[in-house]
């Protein structure tokens, strides 16, 4: 996972500047991550929305 912080990139509801944090999560890591159990949005490098298909979790053994 990589991270980038864009300082003062947007504003909050009161109009105050706020930072935007950008994270990368590779498709192969998505199913085992906490993100898989929460609603997420994904975008490509041009800002276009990407459809996310459910990733089956690995069966637990033991």
Largest sheet: 2 strands, antiparallel
Task: Compute the number of strand runs.
Answer: 4
Class inferred from helices and paired strands: mainly beta
H/E series:
EEHEE
Radius of gyration: 15 Å
Helical amount among residues, as a percent range? Answer: under 10%
How many independent structural domains? 1
Q: Order of strands in the sheet with the most strands?
A: 1-2
Count of runs of 4 or more consecutive helical residues? 1
Average pLDDT over all residues: 80
Strand content: 25-35%
The outline comes out as: elongated
pLDDT under 50 segments (min length 5)? Answer: none
General description of the model:
The protein is mainly β. The chain has one domain (3-50). Helix content is 6%, strand content 32%. The protein has one helix and four strands. The strands form two sheets. The protein has a two-stranded antiparallel ribbon. A hairpin with a 5-residue loop joins strand 1 and strand 2. The longest helix has 4 residues, at 27-30.
């Amino acid at each position: 996972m990589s991270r980038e912080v864009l300082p003062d990139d947007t504003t909050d509801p009161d109009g105050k500047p706020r930072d935007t944090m950008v994270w990368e999560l590779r498709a192969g890591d998505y199913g085992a991550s906490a993100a898989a159990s929460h609603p997420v949005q994904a975008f490509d490098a041009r800002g276009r929305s990407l459809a996310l298909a459910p990733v089956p979790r690995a069966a637990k053994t033991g």
